[in-house]
Design goal:
Length: 132
């Protein structure tokens, strides 16, 4: 039985998707994606599935995601799902469709938090100087 495991990242959220032959079930952290909350995150996660259409109904996808906030987790999950579908089906047209729609469906976001610097409270903020 063919099984594909892929990952997607966004900020500090990491999603690992397992794609196998099945009946179109998609679960995120053991919760069916149809009842996943909040609604905006659910819509974001469903994007690669709606773009794939009937092709997604032939596979079962289990996503384990942790770290970060709910939107970071949703974006990481959608990246993992899209990568998994492309790899499992080996479909060039699907890959092209995803990259035309949104490149972040197939490429994890490399941006990370900047480290804090001295003389400031954060990565960029500095203590004010007085010239008088």
């Amino acid at each position: 039985m063919k099984v594909v495991v892929v990952s997607g990242k966004r900020k500090s959220a990491v999603a690992r998707a397992t794609v196998r032959k099945g009946h179109g079930l998609v679960r995120v952290n053991s919760v069916p994606v149809e009842i996943y909350e909040p609604y905006l995150a659910r819509v974001k996660i469903m994007e690669p599935l709606t773009l794939a259409g009937d092709k997604a109904s032939k596979v079962d996808i289990d996503v384990n995601v942790n770290g970060g906030g709910f939107m970071g987790q949703a974006t990481a999950s959608r990246t993992a799902i899209a990568k998994g579908l492309v790899q499992f089906l080996g479909d060039e047209k699907l890959q092209e469709l995803y990259s035309k729609y949104d490149r972040s469906l197939l490429v994890s976001d490399p941006r990370r938090k900047l480290p804090k610097k001295p003389l400031g409270r954060g990565a960029r903020k500095k203590r004010q100087k007085s010239y008088r």
